[in-house]
Write a structure and sequence with these properties.
The complex is a heterodimer of chains A (about 190) and B (about 675).
Chain A: H1 6-18, H2 22-44, H3 47-64, H4 75-94, H5 102-106, H6 116-133, H7 137-147, H8 153-160, H9 164-190
Chain B: H1 3-19, H2 30-44, H3 54-63, H4 80-86, E1 92-94, H5 99-105, H6 113-126, H7 147-153, E2 160-163, H8 170-176, H9 181-187, E3 201-205, E4 208-212, E5 219-222, E6 231-235, E7 240-246, E8 252-256, E9 264-268, E10 272-273, H10 288-291, E11 306-313, E12 327-334, E13 342-347, H11 348-353, E14 356-362, E15 374-375, E16 382-386, E17 391-396, E18 401-406, E19 417-418, E20 425-430, E21 437-444, E22 451-454, E23 463-469, E24 474-481, E25 492-500, E26 505-508, E27 523-524, E28 530-537, E29 540-547, E30 553-559, E31 561-565, E32 571-577, E33 582-588, E34 595-600, E35 605-608, E36 614-619, E37 633-638, E38 643-648, E39 656-664
Parallel strand pairs in B: 11-14, 11-38
Antiparallel strand pairs in B: 1-2, 2-3, 4-7, 4-10, 5-6, 7-8, 8-9, 12-13, 12-39, 13-14, 15-16, 16-17, 17-18, 19-20, 20-21, 21-22, 23-24, 24-25, 25-26, 27-28, 28-29, 29-30, 31-32, 32-33, 33-34, 35-36, 36-37, 37-38
Helix pairs in contact in B: 1-2, 4-6, 8-9
The chains are: A mainly alpha (about 190), B alpha+beta (about 675).
Chain lengths: ~190, ~675
Amino acid sequence: MDRNDPVWLEEAALAQRAANDRYYFATLYDRYFPRVYNYMRFRSSDPEAADDLTSLVFEKALKEIAHYQAERAPFAVWLFTIARNALTDHLRAGRRHPWLSLDVLRGHSNSDHSTEDALIEAETQDNLMRALARLSERERDLIALKFQAGLNNRQIAEMTRLSESNVGVTVFRAIQRLRVLMEEGKRYERA
Amino acid sequence: MNERDSSERFERIWEEKKRGVKSESQELTEPISQALDTAERFSRADYSDESKIRESLRQKLLDENPEKPGRKPASQVLWGSLRLAAGAAFVIIMIAGFAWSIRNLIPPQGPAGSQLSQQSAPGLETGVISATVSTATPMPVAALPTATQMLSSQPAVNGISYVVQEGDTLSYIAYKFGVSLESLLELNSLSIDSTIYVGQILTVGTGQPVAVQPGNGIVNLRSGPGTDYPVVGQVAEGEQVEAMGKSSDGNWLMVESSDTPGGVAWVSAGLVAPVDVDVPVVQTPPDEDTATPTPYPPPSPVAVSSAVTLTLTSDPLNLEPVDAAGELYFLLRPMTPPVKRQLYHAQTACLASQAACPAALVSGYPEAEDSALAWSPDGRQAALVSSTTSQLMLYSPQNQTWSIVLSPFNASMSIALWSPDGYWIATSAQDADGNTSLLTLIHPNGEPNNVTTRTPAAELGAVQVPLGWLSANELLFMRYQVEPKGQQGEAIEPRLYRVYLDSSTIEELTLSNGWEWLKSYPAPSPDGSRIAISLPNGDRSELAVIDLTGTDQMFFGVNGQMPTWSPDGLQLAYLVQQADRTEIYISRWDGSEQRKVFEWAATPSFTWSPDSQYLLITAYPGGGASAEIDRTIFYLVSLSGGTLEEIRLPEDAAGNEFLAPAFQPPVSP
């Protein structure tokens, strides 16, 4: 554990104050909202579920922040442990119908972007989402923790109870597959 | 450099990059530099602008007092005290002679949970509230007014009260007690918008109290209406039970019994009084004679008892199509690039019985596709709805050729359901703007894009999903609409319809308890007479079978999901979610003889063999006892043999995972 990590120390101080002063909690909220939201989007691929789950995570975090022990784990690890648990519960409840993805039904067709650049951007994001949807649950979890939550392999290993090298290999393999799937996606979009 | 070294190198450079440390500019291997590039793009992707709650949640968190006192809605409160006191999933309070004292004790709208628990717990102990058949204190019949007298003199208090539990909804409670939502609301002076609270007492219906007639001693409760059903409990002479329904011949009464699966049991109507209780006729378990054409299989294990290793070959295997279990078609997908899928098939009977089985390659499967084949009932062709090529394709095993039926073809999901006569393929085809997806019937005429199509419910619009054929003329489908992306639009709750093709009639199936059920994607039985459904109830999913000819319903009392009929219509397979794993169960279609056949930490899926003797299970990564299982695996359960086998790949194909299983029915002559 690197206790000299400036981010860790700063967030520890913020979290300590946040227990008594909402202003500091809001600072952490602003910093982590996109990361938690994107984590939820990448794993559930349903915008409404991502909103609901993100609220759940921050409401829980606010309630529990007084119990956060900075010397045990960085704030990000603590927060994403809450996030993962919320998501696990959600997926367990929602996986009754694996063949029906609301995201697919929403379609990728209508777009509120008007410029061509925005359209290309949106297509790339849709392509990314489609590629993500082809990864296994576990691969999605690990790479979202890695590249959205910004955790390192050791922290992810602690959180998921996998070995550190197993996390490393899975992440590396998943990111390679993601690349292939996105290439394929682009090919079919052009075709 | 091996994969582990590469991944460690990747991790080191990525973490340095994150900290803004310039890494020493040495040569990076292509996989690592490509992975860094993809990771960079991925970590920049940000969807948080699409969130609708970012500002409002921030405001809420800043404002909210976390220790806000007061009542909380039923679905959010953990309320331990009454649960402990009651010790059962729900408490039936029988309103008999003590009705008024209970009424005085607990106001109909229900106080907050903590107050109620303090008051009702002593009541349970002293017998004011008789909780269940088995724990009720026997009461001499003479000490009570007869049921008929009580009903006529005090109709207002006749009924069953229910203590609202965590996770309940009004429609679920209505369903549970077989009353309409409207009458539940009316009985309790509630409106559809009312919030109910944990601990609140609701009057839920019009069950009728009956008592064992003097002179009969102890009377058996059975699992079904007849003496050939097993005994599941007993009632003593003079004891009262609550009758909920009767058998179609009126000889048996269905009574509340919290100890038995489904919360009900059957008692012979001749042994209780009054004899002519006014209760509805309910669905009964099937007749033993007609429901048992084959001996029921022995219990199956949940541990892997053996494994069969495939031998992969590119020679076409022209196996004689005599095996009633059919051929298993499946995909192999490489774990690492290039991820080119390949379609194979092997004989199911061989997989079930031998240590090595040949699996033959089928060329021509779209290499990026992950969808399973949909076999025609005669086994002579398979449809493939391909999202990666936007095509509807047909595969002929006899000629080993693929043909394009429709191109481009945009399906909203990979569904192709053949009609029982093999004429139509039912699917859901998306329109150009992607908001509408109509139930579409397609009959291929042999040439590409030369098809006969029907959209029998076009005027209903929205998203239509075929669920199953009830006969060659009747199709069950679901219709709903989610809010269009990036727009405010109308959301349509899922509803269930039946379309008759000959008359083009569409009928909405409003099964007495309404729309709440349809979120559970009903599965029609092969003979088209019933639907199996899973009802969300808080964190549970209640499994039920509904008779389509009436509104009879059978409630399994099982926390099951994804009910799937065996092709012979006699069994159901379903999932049961536990805290740390998912189990697969098989039971008779009426819910009896439930047996666990498999468990896995990640939710598995399954498919029946055509002869209903095998279940092929797809187990996804991360679910085994060892977290090292990083790929999708197939298991084959043999119901008659009681075995569970893992299907393995030979060494030289070990870098693949299994996917998209589909059984080819035996080819009819």
